[in-house]
Amino acid sequence: MMSFLTSLVNGLSLGSIYAIIALGYTMVYGIAKMLNFAHGDFIMVGCYIIFVFSSSLGLPPVLAILLAVVLCTILGVTTERVAYRPLRNAASPLAVLITAIGVSYFLENMALLIFGADTKSFTSVVPWSGLSLFNGELVIQGITVVTICISLLILAVLQLFVHKTREGQAMLAVSQDRGAAMLMGIDVNKTITLTFAIGSALAAVAGALLASAYPSLTPYTGAMPGIKAFVAAVLGGIGSIPGAMIGGLVLGIIEILSRTYISSQLADAIVFGILVIVLIVRPAGILGKNIQEKV
Amino acid sequence: MLLEIKNLSVYYGVIQALKGISFSVDRGEIVALIGANGAGKTTTLHTISGLIEPKAGEILFNGDNITKVPGHKRVGMGIAQVPEGRRVFRDMTVEENLKMGAYSRTDKDHSDTMSRIFDRFPRLKERRTQVSGTLSGGEQQMLAMGRALMSKPDILLLDEPSMGLSPILVNEVFDIIRSVHEDGTTVLLVEQNAKKALNIADRAYVLETGAIITSGDAEELLNDDAIRKAYLGE
Ligand SMILES: Nc1ncnc2c1ncn2[C@@H]1O[C@H](COP(=O)(O)OP(=O)(O)OP(=O)(O)O)[C@@H](O)[C@H]1O
Ligand SMILES: [Mg+2]
Predict the structure, then answer these.
(1) Where residue B199 sits, what CATH number does that domain have?
(2) Could you read off the pLDDT of A20-34 as tens digits, one per residue?
(3) Residues with CB under 6 A from ligand 1
(4) Which residues pair with B80 in a beta bridge?
(5) Model ipTM?
(6) Can you give the residue range of the structural domain that contains B58?
């Protein structure tokens, strides 16, 4: 029983990290209408920035995370401006997708060049050892508690932002009809820039949490979580903010439970298998709308 | 002149959709732009609103050359459009759509404008909390018009507002255009329903495959034999 509870909590924690990454994926997809396949690598960049400032230079973790958030935001906004925007009206939507894959390889290889291929060990940004419940039978690590709380906080703030602020409403308008949004006086470019800024800042936060929970860092650290978060976003209904949250949590729990009770080798196969099944039953994802739009 | 278009040329790739057209709209007028499918009417309005960049030519608004002004800034200058096919924000409520219409305004309080719009479109008031995607076609048309009026435009560009509506609703839409005009808004009206458009307009231009082939007083055009044959189905 306790081991089940432990797995569940660990699943929630991993799922929360997927959710934070998936939020970035889903917002960029919903508003800029593109899959930023380099999103996972923004996480890796965030991890290395924290690693350099915190583990190597000895800055306080909070400061290192703030720096990572700022630098990742700049990276995301620059990538959009330099690599994606020129292709926004390209004849084929594949052009920007392929570019995103290129950006992904570029970032991974830059990290390889600068930091080498060897695994860096990462010091957790949360020094707190955690909660001990039921006379020590259930131990919940500090990073787990912090991860779950932060992801819920991010979800709440994002929902408020999108529904209650002028910029948030502009995002919703752009996601529904870019041309009509422009006819309202919305600066579509600025709105997309803001979306990339938010998504990339979230990637940095996710990086801090991920590397604290799984403290080994390589240039490929972001790739798999990035793909899983993409799966989570699709599972929840791509473009939907609550959907990304639910998709992330579901995915994290399934992954950890499969790892614990079935097989750690098969866990990823099970995760992707479930995606296939959900998409057969509900092609638009858990919270996605089945919009039959004429293009 | 409130709006002046000079030698406007627009291309989609290698296809030339507008072949150097020129026309103008004076303050206080209703001007109709009529023409068959594919004549270039929507392209013209899109270019005026800044959704498309022209290859050549100029757009003057209030005497200022706005050809290079980004589209989103033109709304605040006084140009609003009710686009073809309504294009309301489907996941937003009626009220949220109307608020989006006031996005470009620098003043904070839009409640006055909104209540005036609700007076003009009582059905929108009843449905203010309904999600727009579930409105009927006629209601969506009213919403698209109300949304455009929320910016308090000097000129309202309307792209086929009667498309797909029942005859009663078509009359209602034209009544509203008339009353918006009486309240001081200049109107540039694109229509395939040439008879209705010429009835309401002061002047009109006839567009054919990207070029203006005729223009004049609406009444004269209504009595022109060639126009009657080609566009009024007589
Ligand atoms: N995005 C586009 N890409 C390529 N060609 C286009 C595009 N939009 C319009 N065209 C072409 O430009 C020409 C003018 O189109 P436009 O939509 O302006 O016509 P319209 O007069 O509004 O027609 P309708 O009455 O059917 O709405 C047409 O030949 C059309 O095929
Ligand atoms: Mg048209």
Answers:
(1) 3.40.50.300
(2) 999 999 999 999 999
(3) B 12, 15, 17, 35, 37-43, 84, 192
(4) B156
(5) 0.95
(6) 1-78+186-234
